[in-house]
Amino acid sequence: DLVSSIVFSAGINPKLYSYITQFEDFYPDENGFIKKKIILKVSDYRSAQIQGNFLAKKGLWVSEYRIESGLNCGGHAFATDGYLMGPILAEFRDRRKELNQTLHSVLVNSLSEKNRSIPPNELPIKITAQGGVGTAEEHQFLLDHYKVDSVGWGTPFLLVPEVTNVDDNTRNKLTKAKEEDLYLSSISPLGVPFNTLKGNTKDDERLENIAKGRPGSSCPKKYLVSNKEFTERSICSASRQYQNLKLKELEDKNLSTTEYQEQYEKIVDKSCICVGLGTSSLLTNNLETKVEGSGVSICPGPNMAYFSKIMSLKEITDHIYGRLNVITRTDRPNMFIKELKIYLEFLKNKLDEFKENMNDKHEKYLLNFADNLKEGINYYDDLFSQLKDKFEDTKANIIKDLEICKSYLHHIKLEIENLSLVQIS
To answer: Helix, strand or coil for residue 231?
Structure first.
């Protein structure tokens, strides 16, 4: 009987989308009412088109497209190829009507072929945004300038005990976290970059196991078993079983000390986050952790660095709507600038990763990424130079930061091109 919504994220999943066609509640009735609405997390307009079309062809309507920054977010991070939040939001704003009409036409055709009820009117879509929002002014700007229906906040609520189940020890660590303590890691067994906090107790537990000569988790829950590299049945790359097998394989490769250590670190870096992310709730509610252990994983976004006190629900709500300012730091960058800087570091890290074995595919990826970032910077140049009565207190810093980012990107691109020349010669 529940009237609700379900959020799908992490890219197109044909098996999942086909599976939900079995359930009546996901289809619109003769009045256009949908009992179970679909919310789709997307990184850009093209992703919304492709996934929305895929679902519409099955007679399923996406009621909300939730645009999330690829890197300036908590948890798993799905980087775009250098496309930035501002230009992405602008495209959704400018092409929203086209998206709605095109997909509704596909939906009607599909419902007709399936002899299902066709809504009497065009079904609406909501466009929402989230990722790195930190001030009332940024919140309102997204609503006014990009015409989004609502704006999401996540990371700051980790400091609100009334809302989130975070144990006292972890919450205190979050209040003290600076930029360097919040990083994009490779600890997830899913193989997807994962925003996390240095010094979380799950990492301490992982390092203790390594020191004892027993790397890996006992894998009590088995929620992320997906690897069949060594076994018929899937196991998890964070498990002791997998890491023992992988390290044995590594021993047989006769690598140099440096190469061995690099590969070793990559193997034992994987953490049991499927357990760790839930342990905080158990500790908070004084529940048994005998099976799971007491190690806690936490996945704040980079925005956590600018929130440094435990807050009540009223305080964070007042902050969001401009009645109170809970940020004491004066050096917090604008959300768009912060994302740009994270993307520049991501590009630099990719360049360093590819340096030794640069090929045409790598070069094409890096140059395309850099070109997309340049387009994004040009967009922000135009945006902030033309804005009136918005970000007046921070505009000078924003424009200065853009110049610095522009120069940094130029140097990265030169390095890519010089490496390409070396490969050719």
So the answer is: coil
In 87-100, which positions are buried (b, 16+ CB within 10 angstroms) versus exposed (e)? bbbebbeeebeebb
Alpha carbon 361 to its chain's center:
25
Q: Residue 175: helix, strand or coil by DSSP?
A: helix
Q: What are the strands, taking DSSP E only, across 85-232?
A: 126-130, 150-152, 182-185, 194-197
Ordered by where they begin, the domains of the chain are: 4-152 (no CATH), 179-302 (no CATH), 333-424 (1.20.58)
Residue 72: CB partners within 8 Å, gap ≥ 6? 85, 131, 132, 301, 302, 303, 335, 338, 339, 342
- Summarised one tens digit per residue, pLDDT across range 24-63 is 999 999 999 999 999 999 999 999 999 999 999 999 999 9
What is the C-alpha separation between 28 and 26, in angstroms, rounded?
7
Can you state the angle between helices 360-386 and 85-113, rounded to 10 degrees? 110
Question: What is the rounded CA–CA span in Å between residue 278 and residue 202?
Answer: 11
Separation of CA 407 from chain center: 26
> pLDDT digits over 320-341, tens only?
999 999 999 999 999 999 999 9
Q: Which uninterrupted H or E stretch holds 40?
A: strand 36-42
Q: SS3 of 183, please?
A: strand
Q: What is the pLDDT of residues 150-182, one digit of tens each?
A: 999 999 999 999 999 999 999 999 999 999 999
Tell me how far CA of residue 133 lies from CA of 50, 68, 191, 257, 360, in angstroms: 27, 11, 26, 44, 37
Residue 354 is inside which H or E element, if any? helix 335-354
The token pair that represents 155 in the structure block: 């990371």
**CA separation for the pair 33, 37 (Å, rounded):** 9
- Specify whether the CB–CB gap between 294 and 202 falls below 8 A: no
Phi, psi dihedral angles at 355 (to 5 degrees): -50, -50
